Structure formats: structure tokens, C-alpha cells
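Researcher: Sit down with what I've pasted below and flag anything odd:
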Amino acid sequence: MTLAPALAPDVEKHRPGSPGLRRVNLALFAAGLTTFMSLYCTQALLPELSGAFGVSPARASLLVSLATGAVALAVIPVSSLSERYGRTRVMVASSVASALVGLLLPLCTTFGALAAVRAAQGVALAGVPAVAMAYLADEVHHASLGGAMGRYVAGTGIGGVLGRAVPGVVTDFGGWRWALAATALVALGFTLAFWALLPPSRCFRPARVDYRPLLAHLADPGLRRLYLIALVAMAGFVTVYNFLTYRLLAAPFHLPASVVSLIAVTNLAGSVASARAGVLADRHGRRAVLLAAGGLAAGGLLLTLPSALPPVALGLLVFTCGFFAVHAVASGWVGLRATRARAQASALYLSAYYLGSSVGGSLGGLAFERAHWTGTGLYVLALYAVAVLAVPGLDLSGRLVGKLRG
């Protein structure tokens, strides 16, 4: 049998209002900032990179997909290592390594080299998202877990804003190389803040590295539904942000690149929505909030279909809020449902999440090239329909309806 970590009683966990919980929230907020800033730093630059290297939109999107695909492959082994060697050690090593790899991006001279460094950066990044949810589930009292998870997701949202806005604005003045250099330096600063703020684990107990819990998690129908929701929701989200940029640069909008990059500011509203969704899930039940969030995302996407800027802007805002609420609730649900090997349960969720970003985002590029924004919108709507249909099989506790609750 797997030697799962023996957690200390809840009294040792960080409780609401404690100084320890405040440090956890700030540290994981910084972790979310540096992770998503690094992961999506090429997204706002895709049109610029298409022109610089003479590649199509679908091929240029590989600079996002390769990084997220590498994360999808790396999170499971990295999470298993954290069961043996500790959550904080793995997260700090991962964040520092990814920041250093990011400094190599502006030095690349070919599309192939840039793609290879992005893949390496994805592998280095994997330790933070792979372990963060398990760290929170281990260290934070259950009464505050939803809110803490929401704040971490909020950090990822603001990191997404900076990862798109910083390079998008800088590229108008200094080109894509200076844009990536500026982003890498800011990400390094957030990494150092994360390292300084992160409290050591108090409730973690090391366990033997064992992949058998992965099979147990995959055998759980409720966790499989949560993994499916992560995959399709993230696939739709990345598709929208990858290719809406191309649409807004072209007719009938003809917006400048620096303005288009600011669409990422909608992630700020998503960050607020994620934090609020976590609190609402703690109070009113995860199933209802998850269903409402999925419907909100689909409604927002419909608003982006007309060729008029006001509904597109409003639709993107609503869609983003819906996505972040879905992710905050579903990711927190995984930590509650898994009673052992939580890092591996969370890693499977994140593997599906980033696989959706990698594969789903590239497939979205094919939809965009063949059927423009209407085809892209229908593709994303189909993905969110799958997410919403997966929710009714889960009850308020996260257990399958009709099964024993834990």
C-alpha cells in the first residue's frame, strides 16, 4: 500500500485571520503571478512572432502550446516527488528554474530555438502548479480552503494579465525581444517574493514515491469528471485569448497591438470572480456555483460573435469571469475529494488542464484558420457544453450522486 502523508490535526492548520494564513495567501498569490506570467508571455506576441518568423497563426500558437504541454507532462512526476521531498522545496526550485530559463527567450534567433526554450520553460514551471493545490489542502483549515484556493487562482489571473500586457506594450517600443526580456525580469522579481514569503510546511509528512495512487484517482468517477471539466474549460479559454488578438488586429477593428494586448486586463475581473467563487462554493455548494460559472462563460462567448467592439469587449469580460470561477471551484474540489496523495490528485487535474491548453488551443487555431471567429466561437461553445454536462454527476460534497460521501 502507498505510504500517504499523515496529516496533523486541523488545529495545526492555518485558520481564518491568522498571520500564517495571510503569508500563505500572499506567497501563493505571488506564485500564481510568476507562473502564469511566464507561461503565457508569448500569447500577446503571436501576431508579431508570426510576422518575424513567417509562420501561420496555428504554428505560432505552438509557442503557447509547447509550454503548456510540457507542464501537462511534467506535473505528475513532479507532484510525486513533492510527496517524498516536500511541497515548499519543489515549488521554490521550480519557480527559480523557470525564471532563469525565461531569460534565454530574447536570445533565440530561430522559431525552432524559441519553441525549444518554451518547452524547457514549461517543464521548469511545472512544480508550482503541480504542488500549490496540495500545499493549500495540507496547510489551510478546511473552513478557509475555498477562499485560499480562490486567491491563488486570482494570482494566476493577474499573472495572465501581466504576461500579456507587459510584452504587448513593450513590443510597440522595442520589439518582441525586449518584450520577452522585460517579462522575464518582472517574473523573476515575483519569484523572489514567493520564495521569501512562503511559510514552511507544518502538516506535511513525507511518503514513498509511488504512482499507484494515480490509478486510484483515475478510478474515481467524480475526479474524472473534474479532470474533464479542467481539460475542456482551459482549452476554450486559451483558444479565445490565442486568436482574438488576430481578429482585433484585422478588419473591421484594426486596433494597434499595444491596445489589443490590454484585453488581458479582463483577467483582473476573472481574478475577482475566482476569489468570490471560492467563497460562494464554501457557503452555498460547489455544484451550483460550477454550473452557474459554466453558463456564464458560454453566455459571454456568444456576445463576442458580432463584429462590433462593445459586445466583444463585454463578452470577453463575462467569459473570463466564468472561466476563472469554473477553475477556482473545480480545482478546490479536487483537494477536498482526494483523501490521500493529494499532490498526485491535483497533478492529474493540472495535467488535464494544461493538456487542454496545449492540444485544445492548437485545435482552436485550425478552427480559426478555416472558419474565422464564428467557427472558433462554436468550437469553444461545444467545449463548455461538455463542461456543463459533466457537473450534474457530482453532488454538493464532490461525491457522485448516490455514492458514499466523504
Observations:
- The chain has one domain: 19-198+213-393.
- The first helix runs from residue 19 to 39.
- The mean pLDDT is 86.
- The chain is about 75% helix and 0% strand.
